[in-house]
Amino acid sequence: MRKLPPLSALRAFEAAARRNSFKQAAEELSVTPTAVSHQIRQLEEWLDLKLFERQTRQVRLTDGGKALFPAIRDGLDGFERAIESVRHARDAKVATLTSTVAFTARCLAARAGAFHKAHPEWALRLDATNTVVDLDRDADASIRYGSGQYPGRIVEPLFGDRFAPVCRPDLRIASEKDLRRATLIHFEWGAAVHGDPRAIVWQDWLEAAGMGSVEASGGLTFTEEVHAVQATVAGQGIGLLSLTLVADELAAGVLVQPFELTLESFRYDLVYSKRAATRPATGLLREWVLAQFGDRTPARTRSKRLARDA
Fold first, then answer.
1. Does residue 109 register a pLDDT over 60?
2. What family, per the record (predicted)?
3. 162-263: what fold?
């Protein structure tokens, strides 16, 4: 029978040793610093060995702690790998791809059948969320919309996005005068990018177009981007929208782009974790996503790279 201290004490020790901080270890483990301190003191008593030198703002490992740390770290890493392997073996035929609500609704949903046709033995699960998902645990890959900087993740650039006014052709909008009488359609950017110059709004486009006589704040505002797209397609007004999200309607003539000026916004990237890179599901998703969307970007910008930690 193995004689081992409590697992909670070992986890607290490993996190505190890795971060040199009881406070940061507590944040990682979702407990209080007092709880971490108690667990480590319990481990020290069990071992009859002092593991840390307590200082004002940080802690440092003693010689005994330095000797113990690699074994505990490697052991917990081994537990995690084994658990992940078992969990993914259970779901081996489900490939989970996450992306924003708007991109999933407007670009992925209509193309999901192509994945099933290419891999009929696999189930494709599309996770539509504007919240950043844990790519080690909750998804095999992600199509992310943002700056392209995702520390510690593998990033494969797909294409950049641009914004322009679009509307139904029967609204007959072609000039600044027409815009003054039109209903402008807006959507609210999330708090994470609010104020970023790439989060394009009507005021930005009107200033760039030299159309200062048009009131930028009036019209219809939606909290969700995909609803602004739907309102524009329904002829409720003219939307300043992502050309990516309305590409099909523009190609079919359902919508038109009455003004030539477009403004550069964020970019789309295929993102996955280093740990997920060897999963069959991630490999299939990578192949499918690059086939569907990778040809929009010149080949020289599509090479795989690993985002470095900041």
1. yes
2. Belongs to the LysR transcriptional regulatory family.
3. D-Maltodextrin-Binding Protein; domain 2 (3.40.190)
